[in-house]
Protein 1
Amino acid sequence: MSDSIEGITHSLCTLEFEDHRPLYDWCQEVLGVYRSRQIEFARLNLTHTVMSKRMLRRLVEESHVSGWDDPRMPTISALRRRGFTPESIRDMCERVGVARRNTVTELALLEHCLREDLNRRAPRRMAVLNPLKVVITNYPEGQSECFVAINNPEDADMGTRTVPFSRELYIERDDFMEDPPRRFYRLAPGREVRLRYAWLVTCTDVVKDADGTVVEVHCTYDPDSRGGNSDGRRVQGTIHWGSSAHAAPLEVRLYDNLFTDPAPATAASESDRDFTDLISPDSLEVITALAEPALAGANPGDRYQFERLGYFCADIVDWTPTPGAPVSKPTRHLRASWAAVQSSARVTAVRRTTMLPRRHLCTTTTLRRI
């Protein structure tokens, strides 16, 4: 009767309350009180998670997650901490609409809405998640310089920033292969690539450890190619990088789906298993990355696009005011994994440079200074 007492015109609730509507209406009629109208609609369900409060409470109380705001949870506090914007959530809800039929919405749709939103307003930064050392052998020792980088190509009003460059750099380990396959347009022995915003470099040598793993790559740079100008030469690959002398250490938390099954509650009931048995052991990966120094000035909740990687957010819980590395929750990687590409014979030539495994597609990730 609280709806009637408070003067609620329309009481909106999910479909399980439909059976109670006759009693709801009868009480108001018999008591002669203000008539509120009850309208039922289907609840919003997302793949690879559970929406039941009872199940979510178990996840928290049994320490399967760190709390109600754990970025793998479907709660508003968790989505906010992971970097989802209110605009992206509203956009998804508008696309899904309100209906009376129970449906399950792909989590990928929410991620798509977030990408569209952040692409327009998230500043770009360069960070290396899996570093491989590069030495520019013909660059003067002890010298450094700065290059101008665009903050957001979608919004010229966001201006530019400077990125420091030095003799020793770090690139993504996936951006180098000693024996590359066809259509691998990144760094390899004898191959020239463009360092984003900087120079053209050519790989001349590699250094390996006792196990034969490449631990260092030696390159030469073209002094006439400042800003990545190829001077008419055809250079297909452009890779991001970070200066060894200036990089800020960064703790990066990579989040994947909390459950291995797209419908964990249904799958558990059909197989007579507990839904917690379907929790993915790989839903969280914590790594230490290296980022350009501009990220050291980020504030909690700031969102960025790491060039060629994905979207990341400075953690609103674990961010510390001391200089160092931010904590980010990507909105999952946008780059290709060549190990995954080569394992699939059905991948087309065009997709080979852009395809990623599912866990590296695109949502937000959190950053924490270390």
Protein 2
Amino acid sequence: MEHVLTMNNGIEIPILGFGTYQITDSQEAEEAVFQAIQTGYRHIDTAQSYLNEEAVGRGIKKANIARAELFITTKIWVENVSYEGVHASFQQSLERLQLDYVDLLLIHQPFNDVYGAWRAMQELQQEGRVRAIGISNFSVDRAVDLSLFNKVVPQINQIEINPFHQQTESIKLLRQANILPEAWAPFAEGKHDIFNNEILKTIAKKHNKSVAQVIIRWLVEQEVVVLAKSVKPERMRENFNVFDFNLSDEEKKQIATLEQGKSQFFSHADPEMIRWMAGRKLNS
């Protein structure tokens, strides 16, 4: 169970992924991916909107690991979320990544022609150019809607999950829909001084671990795929070293008290945010 989870199509996904969001410097992104793979990560997550697919591809190539050992995710940005947009932009993503296929392709945001995009993604999966398909930032009702009216149930829903926004009910409902939850921003990008939170620091000290390791372990024990990002090799190693301790029920109850019941970033139901995403053009 610990190191991999199995998606609804029988394909395994490493439970620990290396995230590349906000690593925008080309050389830094390439080196970070290379170092992550050297550390032991086999799951690398990028996206069209991160503008680093080329650098990620170079880092993968530099690591010189057998392709079958790696699990690579990318995501379709809002302007490309349509039947034609997926086919055209996915080919561009493959070329930037220097890959023949990706292991997981996600619709990055629940906007634009989601149904058309999903039909195209189903075709890519049937052709073997994508091993698994999924969604990101979809509310549970949108995820279930997509599931019920299409041939393929999304394999993954990548959503914000962290100690301040724990998404307990969403995780439960996604599991009921046979969709695996995956966590972005597990550290809430440092908000509310999370690395100095007294509850998390006390738990970390007890296990001789860091706060980051406690948070990752908290997600691993929920069988949630988790993406952790760092450009520092020592932090990469630390974040990867979470399989030698367990949290007690009491510690989990203490973490539960940190819940704030809302996103630490923005609401996907905010019309202004939707307008901003619709106006952010990568291909212009």
Protein 3
Amino acid sequence: MAKIVILTGAGISAESGIRTFRASDGLWEEHRIEDVATPEGFMADPGLVHRFYNARRAAAAAAAPNAAHRALAELEQDGRHEVLVVTQNVDDLHERGGSANVIHMHGTLTGALCHSCGHRWPAPAEMAPRDPCPACQKPATRPDIVWFGEMPYQMEEIWTALRAADLFVSIGTSGNVYPAAGFVADAGHAGVPTLELNLEPSAGSRYFDEARHGPATAIVPAWVREMLG
């Protein structure tokens, strides 16, 4: 059974209406990245950060999985391949599209985290700074999102899977955000074949053995059809 590790980024959810991260102008949905996606921003104005993620949570809940999400689920469910999806996205469209083996390296909008005791629980639709932690009761609730300056989740598990893979595929990523941008090099050093599926060449496109470019809803299902024969 072939082991396939698939990295997905904002490009796979863009066609579901989830706005992509735009770093070129330093803004993210009309907010400065430093204000809404860093621990320092949260400490300075937790109300702003909660409102921002409440809006993103609502937008994600209203979105539907697209053909690319469903194709990856079909690949996993076929049974001839062992598929691990490692996603930089904080939406749950992979799971709702049918994928079961998913790692959210940057956290998820459906999770809440206590920054005092570290307890995690399912996030309600609306969160606020004074919400008490169910475990310690302190008003220390934050979104369970990995912000800039924080370590992504399950990195050892991801690196182990990369080195043991028979194929590494990167879908809808910019190739600018580390450590995910380094996965192609990690796979290459381990002798793992690599494939990029992206709307346009990423910053690290030259490191892939093969690259195919176009909308995710077109090129991902086409690649999956090839894999399924």
